[in-house]
Design a protein that fits this description.
Elements: H1 2-18, H2 23-40, H3 48-79, E1 88-93, H4 99-111, E2 115-120, E3 126-131, H5 137-156
Antiparallel strand pairs: 1-3, 2-3
């Protein structure tokens, strides 16, 4: 946590020194501060922060890609005369154990067009997901497990 706060402080210092308050300038300052902290802390034992930031950025880009791909699929289905719907309900086994992990995972899945979380099992070991375009159940479960859940758990744990 202290590395993140120092990185934010370096970002704000960069914005103050350059005098331009734009998101791109703040992001550049954040990346510059990350690089400075990385160089200064190469000998330190606790390097979790320096592993989590690239994973977080990668997860954000992966989520944006998945969301755009799902939007294109739904939009294509809406504008064409033939419907490609193949709805189904999946029981998805969870590896996430805490409430925050389950909540973030279900939010990410629901934000992707074509999927909706219907319920969470009583023992919090399964999600019930409605899928608009379900071709193969096992492929969908593997895609969520590999794409969303593992990446999210790497960041949170």
């Amino acid at each position: 946590m202290k590395h993140f706060l120092m990185n934010l402080l370096l970002s704000f210092i960069w914005v103050a020194l350059t005098g331009s308050m734009y998101y791109s300038n703040f992001l550049f300052g954040f990346l510059l501060g990350f690089f400075i902290l990385w160089v200064m802390n190469r000998q330190e034992e606790d390097r979790r922060y320096f592993n989590k930031v690239p994973k977080t950025i990668g997860f954000i880009f992966y989520f944006i890609y998945e969301m755009l791909a799902a939007n294109v699929q739904v939009a294509y289905d809406v504008i064409t005369p033939k419907y490609f719907f193949k709805p189904g309900i999946i029981r998805y086994p969870l590896e996430a154990t805490t409430d925050i992990e389950i909540n973030l995972l279900s939010t990410m899945i629901s934000m992707t067009p074509g999927t909706l979380i219907l319920d969470i099992s009583e023992d919090k070991r399964s999600l019930f997901i409605h899928v608009m375009y379900l071709k193969d159940r096992e492929h969908f479960i593997a895609q969520i497990k590999k794409g969303f859940e593992h990446r999210l758990l790497e960041i949170l744990r």
